[in-house]
Amino acid sequence: MANKLVAGHLCTQHDLYYMVLSLPDSVTGKKKPVWFPTGLKAKGNKTQANKMLQKARREATKGILPPRPKAGKSDQDYLPVVAAGDLRSSMLFSQYILYWLQANRTTWEETDLRCLLWSNCTRHSALL
């Protein structure tokens, strides 16, 4: 039985096209929208953006995600999806770390790390 094609659509924001794919969350398994920039201006590039979207949907169905920006406020959402069935003894260490980060995503928070960097933080003052 063939996998269902990942749902997706195009959005424009700040005069640029973005691909929005509905990908399963690694913790809950529920689908959530994940935005990927196309790098195309909105004016005159709809056909090319649609072609990019169709290619991204086909590749995401196979487990290959489009490239993502290196910086941004939601870098946590850029972890690649690694299914629990993919865990094996021949897995590379770097792949296992990505798997571990997804599996333990609820236990670590970016705010905790930021808080550790400030000496006046009362939440983690015992660790400093």
- Fraction of residues in β-strands: 15-25%
The coarse silhouette is: elongated
The main sheet comes to: 3 strands, antiparallel
Low-confidence stretches: 71-76, 116-120, 124-128
Number of helices: 3
Strand order of the largest sheet: 1-2-3
> Helical content, roughly?
25-40%
Total count of strands: 3
In short:
It contains 3 helices and 3 strands, in the order βββααα. It is of the alpha+beta class and 128 residues long.
Structure notes:
The protein is α+β, with helices and mostly antiparallel strands. It has two domains: 1-68, no CATH class; 82-128, no CATH class. Helices cover 27% and strands 20% of the residues. The protein contains three helices and three strands; from the N terminus they run βββααα. Strands 1-2-3 form a three-stranded antiparallel sheet, covered by helices on one side. The longest helix has 17 residues, at 46-62.
